[in-house]
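Human: I'm a chemist; would you kindly supply sequence and structure tokens for a protein?

Assistant:
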Amino acid sequence: MTKVAYGAQSLEEVRGWFRTRGDEARLTTRYLPRRHEEMIGGSLFWILKHQLVARSEILGFEEAEGGRTHIVISTKLVEVLPKPRRAHQGWRYLEDQDAPQDLGGGEAGGDVLPGEIASELSRLGLV
């Protein structure tokens, strides 16, 4: 699942959203996703400046006031190899084959570009 980090100017700002929330956070959405059962244990990928930049584990779904739904996510952000993605409202499904690789999974220091550089190169169509 993908979601725009609306209003955030940096990944550090997104991290700040979760610092005081403990181990889990709730995002409110109007409708329960049709594929909600298969998404538990999967990831919500954050879009920032037209790039997938991080992910949060989806822990579950809960009913919320007014017929809405809470998407319960882990507050631990896992950075991913930046991948271009258009902004959108709400959330969208992301198929496994389209999900970017996690950063920090034991890559050698020179194997991965810093997120800001990778984002700029992608914007220029160079990666």
Remarks:
- Confidence is low (pLDDT under 50) at residues 106-111.
- The chain has one domain: 2-123.
